[in-house]
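PROTOCOL LOG
Step 1. Enter all chains and additional molecules of the complex.
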Amino acid sequence: MLFTIINGLATGMAVFLVAAGLTLIFGILKILNFAHGAFFMIGAYVAFMIVGSNPPSLWLFLLASVAAGLVVGALGFITDRTVLRRLRDVDEAYMLIATFAVLLICEGAVKLIWGVNYASINPPPLLDDAIIVGSLFIPTYSAFLIGFGVLVYVALDLAIHRTWLGKLLQAISNDSWMTGLLGVNVPVALTLSVVASFMLAGLAGGILLPNQTLSPVLGGSYLLLAFIAVIIGGLGDIRGAFIASALLGVIESASSVLLPNIPGLATYVFVVVFLLVKPQGLFGSAST
Amino acid sequence: MLKVERLDAFYGDSQVLHGVGITVGDGERVAIVGRNGAGKSTLLKSLMNAGPRVSGLVEWQGENLRDMPSFRRVRLGLSLVPEDRRIFGHVTVAENIEMARYAAGGNALPAAVVIERFPMLVPIKDRPGGRLSGGQQQMVAVARAIAARPKLMMLDEPTEGLAPVIVEQLARDVKAACVETGAALLLSEQNLWFARQCTDRLYIIDSGQIVFSGDWPALDRAPDVKQRYLAV
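Step 2. Run joint prediction.
Step 3. Record the structure below.
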């Protein structure tokens, strides 16, 4: 049972790493970014180019993940300049269609650059082991994922709620017009948020690379759960997304043990029931 | 210091301002009065490039501002308190004021110093911005504007919806804040008593055009103007 929970938490943190960037960009720019999964996938491919199928060391693996974050962050800057920034003042439907188009372009580009072959990647040294506590068997990679997820959450939460940059971003999210009237360069702040969100996608791609089957369909794999986590957590709420991700991971994990013949069903039942009971999300408000 | 000539402003296809011309000197306090819908708010927003589409000349300290975005204008010393005040609900009163400092940077005043200038704010400085009365919101909005040390503060109908006793307090605080910091004031108002307390001269705007310019005694000498453009 404990094993199921830990396994679930590891899945949950993987979901959170993807959901973090999604909820950030939604919270500040109100963009539902369909292309987020595609950029997550590009991050995974970039990291794969650096470390290969058998990462030689933990440090190189972490470095590759950071590099993936930086590359995807740069792509975020380009996407913002070419697409997102032009659509800020028009109806949200255009933004949805545009991010969907970006998703298709990214998937096409991935196939062109890296081909359609599958690749599988092992965890790097130190993370390919397991911790055994009594009868409990915890893969070190799972423990690493849980720790890393918590770290990313704490860092984001502090950045948004404790720093002035975070408070200004919240102010922009609440009232960008007034924030501009106080002297904040709102366009630059919005671009920064896009870049930060994309960096998180790239970083997640690198960190979640081990135990994955890398292929051009990877983009969709976590995205659905991440979207669910963002919705349950309350759109734009980092803390909500964190808790919702953990919850979803545990439910997924438990249902695969208890109901092995119908994978995924428990998750969707949970989502439907949850939204009927608390349509506003976990903490009942849609602010960051 | 501020020179506006032939200013037209549009919302979509409809023209709101027609060839408006005004000036505000260094440290001068000037009122724009007029009825609802005369174009007062549009004029102030046009000066900040914060909404309407604008053509004409807006010159600030000798520089033609053209299409400069509003956040740059703030850094040049212009500041607008909009009529709906727009206090941030997610942070406290003190943080609302501090926000101006982090937004505008440079030589802005610390929140503690600003709060001392507005006696009404002292007891509520740690209250969330979302839990304030209308009068408190207006005080915070003015304090937030003053914190950025503007050279010209623009207030858009600050007395709207406020109790008379608060209006008196606000008149004292606004005037004192302007005198102490040397800031000029451009005030859009319908409350003539308040406008007169705070300013030395006025423009009357009607249907998007300036129809009267002069000091307050001059308005007293022109009862027909008052009757025609300001009587309700």
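Step 4. Note key features.
The mean pLDDT of chain B is 93.
Chain B has nine helices and ten strands.
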